[in-house]
Design goal:
alpha/beta; TIM Barrel; 8-stranded parallel sheet; 9 helices; 40% helix; 18% strand; binds pyridoxal-5'-phosphate
């Protein structure tokens, strides 16, 4: 099942769309099956769970952090995390920069935007990001590299709403790219799309989809 899903997705997805296998709550054995099927990029949303899994699984796995990150947890993942999708405040960005420096690393990050209608989802507004990037503080964050943006659409059956929200995220990407990252070739990722909405996300220009239940079954 897991193996078949990985193979089907690998064949189906356009080559410019990266598949992040979201393995949160799933056991080591499931991740190993996906790994044996060729999957190397995995996403987790809890620092402690990520650290435990990373310590026992193959070292060439690229671990992505996709959940809301608390400042006091950054130190645990900073030595090895490959990409943090969920930078949702300047406070967390500062902490990631600090821990990256301690580890002598540059950590790749995505800025998470709030695009959904639900109150509960974390993320920046466009104005907040603009203010942060234009501030003099921003250049001090030299141990992080912003390689794109991330967002989650509303949890709804309304496909038109989902499409509009992903389109908004895509628009944000283009405005940021042309204003602030024009000559930065690393700034190129739009992480959008989960099991329920990844097809719409790809239509709207996603470069990274985060799939859990499609690959591993329901949680
Ligand atoms: C759990 C999770 C996913 C994967 O969700 P599925 O619906 O199982 O594909 C993707 N992104 C984030 C941020 C998540 O927390």
């Amino acid at each position: 099942m897991i193996q078949e899903q990985i193979q089907a997705l690998t064949t189906l997805l356009p080559e410019y769309v990266q598949l992040v296998a979201v393995s949160k709550t799933k056991p080591i054995e499931d991740i190993q099956i996906a790994y044996n099927a060729g999957q190397r990029v995995f996403g987790e949303n809890k620092a402690q769970e990520l650290v435990e899994k990373q310590s026992v699984l193959p070292k060439d796995i690229l671990w992505h952090f996709i959940g809301h990150l608390q400042t006091n947890k950054v130190k645990y993942i900073a030595p090895f995390v490959h990409l943090i999708h969920s930078i949702d405040s300047e406070k967390i960005l500062i902490e990631v920069n600090k821990e990256a420096k301690k580890n002598n690393r540059t950590i790749s990050c995505l800025l998470q935007f709030h695009i959904a209608q639900e109150e509960s989802k974390f993320g920046f507004s466009f104005e907040e990001v603009k203010e942060m990037i234009e501030s003099e503080r921003f250049i001090q964050y030299s141990n992080i590299q912003i390689i794109g943006i991330m967002g989650m659409a509303s949890f709804t059956e309304n496909e038109e709403l989902i499409r509009e929200e992903f389109q908004t995220l895509h628009d944000y990407f283009h405005v940021l790219k042309s204003h602030y990252f024009k000559f930065n070739t690393e700034f190129k990722e739009i992480s959008m799309g989960m099991s329920g909405d990844y097809k719409i996300a790809i239509e709207q220009g996603s470069t990274m989809i985060r799939l859990g239940s499609t690959i591993f079954g329901s949680r």
